[in-house]
Specification:
Elements (H helix, E strand, L loop, with lengths): L26 E5 L6 E5 L3 H4 L5 E5 L2 E2 L3 E6 L5 E10 L9 E9 L11 E5 L5 E10 L8 E6 L5 H8 L26 E3 L11 H9 L3 E7 L22 E5 L1 H13 L3 E4 L1 H9 L1 E2 L4 E2 L2 E6 L14 E5 L6 H9 L2 H13 L10 E4 L1
Parallel strand pairs: 1-19, 3-12, 3-14, 4-11, 14-18
Antiparallel strand pairs: 1-2, 5-6, 5-8, 6-7, 7-10, 8-9, 9-10, 12-13, 13-17, 15-16, 18-19
Length: about 350
Amino acid sequence: MRTSDFDYDLPPELIAQEPAAERDGCRLLVMDRHSGDLHDAVFRDIEDELREGDLLVVNETRVLPARLLGAKRGTGGSAEVFLLREVFDREPRTATSATWEVLVRPGKRLKPGSGAVVDFADARGQVALSAEVIDWAGEGSKGGRIARLTTTAASLDEALHRVGHTPLPPYIRNYAGDEELYQTVYAKRESSAAAPTAGLHFTTQLIERLKAKGVRWETVELEVGLDTFRIVEEDDPARHQIHTERYTVPERTVRAIAEARERGGRVIAVGTTSMRSLESCWDAETGRPQARDRAATSLFILPGYRFNVVDALVTNFHVPRSTLMMLVSAFSSRDHVMAAYRHAIEQRYRLLSFGDAMFIR
């Protein structure tokens, strides 16, 4: 198995640069994970694919306003700080101060030990938030930094919402639409640097129709990191060091999984982040899922992995050579997935985060 096995030619013109006019009006490619059979549909048609007793599990995390555009203190030069994850073992957190792992630009001018501070002004031109670069991030961070965030506002949360921007994937350029369309309609706690995009296609009306049909709806939370956009650089994917993320699987979701199994229903993960959460909570000793509360997972799902919890997957189309291509190939097969992607490209599906969806059943 080589990383190149999960490569494909991605036509730039098929990378969706804006969401569908209607969330559930995008296209849906339905694939049988065992046979590879395909058929084309519209996302709201997923109602016809689901049946009473099925359980949909979604990642209810919300995207942080994690992209901060400011100026370096002392020189006034433009600088960007991207929040990745809060670090809790460095300094005590207060309402107005916290430590974060971040990415910075320009990296050469924002080095630890240089006293580098970036100030971020709100719409009135007042500095509402500052970031001091205090250390390098750990091994595997690819140039990340540790920064101390401070604010004169009532709270960091208030300051972030005054100066921050919702981060979009690097392949989405010049989007000037409603940033709320990069959030799911059921998103709750802000804890992610990227959206769990498979869930973007659900509307409140579609969710209610599914529930009325007898499809159960439960949640997990996985704090999505920016590494989700990075491709695998190792020739041998088994040598790739996948990022660690925090995830939560509530007890009610664990109970719902057991009840779905008893009724003969399927456990359907909405998105690869829900998939990783559900598979990470599997306890091999007890032979069943266990509730988790902000547990760490670095589960890397490659072909050959045995799925213990999930029976079907709602997902978007993914970047070539990514861990997500490997995950969906593990859930079906590399040949079936590559055939599905060839079909999607031939049929001019819209791809990646703002694009169309797949239902792998």
